[in-house]
Structure formats: structure tokens, C-alpha cells
Amino acid sequence: MAAGGFVDQGGSRQYEGKVTVYVLITCFVAAMGGLLFGYDLGITGGVTSMEPFLIKFFPSVYKQMKGETGNDSTYCKFDNELLTLFTSSLYLAALVASFFASTTTRALGRKPSMFLGGLFFLVGALLNGFAVNIAMLIIGRLLLGFGVGYCNQSVPVYLSEMAPASLRGALNMGFQMAITIGIFAANLINLQTAKQEKGWRISLGVGAVPAVCMCVGALFLGDTPNSLIERGQNEGAKEMLIKIRGTDKVDEELRDLIDASEAAKMVKHPWKNIREPKYRPHLVFCTMIPLFQQFTGINVIMFYAPVLFQTLGFGNNAALVSALISGGVNMVATLVSIFTVDKFGRKILFLEGGCQMFISQVAVGIMIATAFGVKGQGSFSKVEADALLSLICIYVAAFAWSWGPLGWLVPSEICPLEVRSAGQAINVAVNMLFTFLIAQVFLSMLCYMKFGLFFFFAGFVVIMTIFIFALLPETKGVPIEEMNVVWRSHWLWSKFVPEDNKANA
Fold this sequence. Notes:
With 505 residues, the protein is mainly α. The two termini are 26 Å apart. α2 runs parallel beside α9 (174-193), α17 (298-311) runs antiparallel to α18 and α18 runs antiparallel to α19. It has one domain (19-495): MFS general substrate transporter like domains (Growth Hormone, Chain: A), CATH 1.20.1250.20. It has a two-stranded antiparallel ribbon. Residues 1-11 and 501-505 have low confidence and may be disordered. A hairpin with a 2-residue loop joins β1 (6-9) and β2. The chain is built from 24 helices and two strands. It has helices at 21-31, 33-47, 51-57, 59-65, 81-107, 110-129, 134-162, 168-172, 174-193, 199-205, 208-220, 225-230, 234-245, 251-265, 270-273, 280-294, 298-311, 316-344, 346-372, 382-400, 403-414, 417-449, 452-471, 484-488, and strands at residues 6-9, 12-15.
């Protein structure tokens, strides 16, 4: 043990401390921000497949679904731009909100951003629950989007900064775990409310519950040492470090955080600076990881699972049950990542998940092509339907222990403090942009590309798996302020990150 409370391991510092009850509680409360995102992901597809909801707001889609419009292709049952706008408008708002949230997170701290996210989501959920026309629905969705944008910007950063390096992966993945719990809870609620005439109001309105939890929880959270130092509260930062590390020997870690903050304050334009060559790996991964995460095709399942299953010949109740099953697999499989990410590392999970997703997507595409062909006329037997659901669950499980949680973890942990808010804002913005695009065009893509859509996403999975294999260094166990060690040892990124460019410089 070196003087001052850290040891050098492989060129990176490992500070003294232990995992305290306080840090576990704060990370648990903060991760509830993921419930907001997850609940909306899970609730939308179920609501848009409920007949009373369609009759009230989208009667043309209802007629189309019943085959009253002359288009009898299974692939085109739900193809309607206004219906997809109901889903996708949230993510367009989240894209805009992420840039405002970046400023809030840096100037006021991570905690106020989380509170604002919960507040926006609360108002949006209530508007949707009491909606009487499409305008109220869309306004509510936009407010929900601002809530998601603020929480997705602040929560992963909060978790990465509070967690000790040895458990940063597992604790940060509490955010993804909360997303999967939200999806599962939404699917369960949809299954119950689908039987009621105005059940869709309950499904949409219950989103206020996790929003209230987020608002109340944020009031009692302490802010991160990094954020406190960033705003000149060094003594408060030291007290917080002692509390979350469970030891008085925090001087070295505090000194490193202060040095990083002082260097960061010299960066007046983080949006301009992140484009500098020395931040090239950070910019690349904060852009490409969220882009690739959406082109895994996961939101085809998360947004539209009940709609997709109905399209493929499942009955309404069977479609909701199938969505619940895939949501349950998503939640359980995320635990695999939580328990393995700090043991085996990020890279191996990325690679294994990519291979598993590719195989299952190709198999799903072949099954649909065989059953429905190009014209979209056919059906599955019960055995075939069960096999299709099993393949989709295998795909969902692979995403849940790879690109799902790691898509939020890696961008949140790799950026030095001076560009961290900008990097996370880019991560959220790119994620929301392509989430919006996929949500908006998926039903049309399914209508025109048919079973080829699954081969389309499988092709992207190949590309992103090669990208990770070649370009992502392992970040397991590296303290967040010492992350540049991994770039300087990489065959490509060492050409951009100079030897004297410390993580806090």
C-alpha cells in the first residue's frame, strides 16, 4: 500500500476504500431513473395494440388492423405514420432535452437534473393518462421525452462517479436493470388493463408512479464528489468521499479529483474541445456505441413487441403474454451482466452478445420468410410460434447482458471530467436520435422490407461486433480519472492521446 491510500496496478491507481451501504443506497435510488425509460419502452407497444385506444385516437389503424382497407398483408397491419409519431415523438424531445440537460448537469449538479427528469415525466404521464385528443397525447409524450432526456443524461454519470472503480460496472448497470424492471412492469400492467375499456388510461397514467419515486429520491440524494468539486465545494466533496468509500484515507483520490476539476475549468468550451484529437476515442465511442445500440434492432422488440407478435399471427392476449415473457427474459439476463462485467470485463460481453444476437436474428428472419413469404400471407403453428418466441428471447437475453447495459456504461465511464457532460450529452442525443428514427420508420420498414428487416439488423450486428473487437480497449477496474491509461496502450488511440495527456488534463 502506497502512502496516502492507493496502490499502483498496471499503470492505474486503485484507491483505498470499500463498498459502503450508503453508496449502494444512493446508486439504487439514482438507478430508479431507468424505471422511467423502461416503463415507457414497455408500455407503448401494448397501448398501441389495444382496440379501445385505437378506436378513440387512430380509427384508421383499427380498420387497417381488421382488414377493412383492402391491404391484407400481414406485414402492413399497423403501418401508420401518426401512430408511430405517438411512439417516436418522445425520443425526439429527449434528443433536444439532452443538450439542455448537459448544461444543467454541469452547472447545477447531477442531482437537480435527476429531479427535473422525474418532474417532466410526472407531468407527461398525467397528461397522457387524462388525454382526450391526439394533441394532449403528443404534448404528454414530449414532456415524457424531456424527462427521459434529463435522466438518461444525469443518472449514468452519477452512478459512474459515485461507484468505486472495482464495482463501477455492476453499480452503473443498476440503471439498465431498472430499465428492464420498468419494461417488465409495463408489460404486466398492459396484460391486465387490456381487458378493460379504458385500461389504456391506467397503463399510461401509472407512469407517474416511478416519476414520483425519482423526484422524492433525488431530494434525499447527495451529489457526487466530482460534481461538488466542479462547483467549488471541496470540503463537501471530501465528506462525501469519506461517506461513500468508508475510510478517512481519501486525500489522494480527492487530490486527483481536484486536479481534474481545475484542469476541466480551463476548458471553456467542452463541445469544441471534445472534437480535439486527444479526445478522438471518447467522441468516437460516445457517438458509435449509442448508434449501434439502436441498430441491434432491440427497439423493434421493446417498442412494438405486442404489435409485432400480433402482426405475426399471435392473438391479442397471446401477443401481450409473449411480450411479458420477452420482458422477463430481458430483466433476468441483465443480472448476468451485473455479476460478470467487473469480473470478465466489458469487451467479452460485447462480443458474445453480438454473436448470439446475429444467430438468433437470422433464424427469426428465416422462420418468418418460410411462414409468410413476400406477400405476408400465412401463419405459424403453435409449435412454430413457440419456437419463434424462444428465438426472440435468446436474442433479447444477448442484448440484455451486452449492448443494453454496456451501451450506457462505457460512454459514461470513459470521458475525462472536462468533457464528461458533453460526452454524455452526445451519447444520449445520438441514442435518442436513432431511437426516434427506428421508432418512426419501423412499421413502414416491416411493411416494405418484410422478413428482410431482420437480416438488415443482423448485418449491423456483424459490423458493430467487428468495431468492438478492433477498437474498444478493456476498461474494467480502471479508476474513472485514470482512464487515459487504456487509450495510451491501444494500437490506434495511442496515436491521438499523447503520453503527457493525463485523464485529468
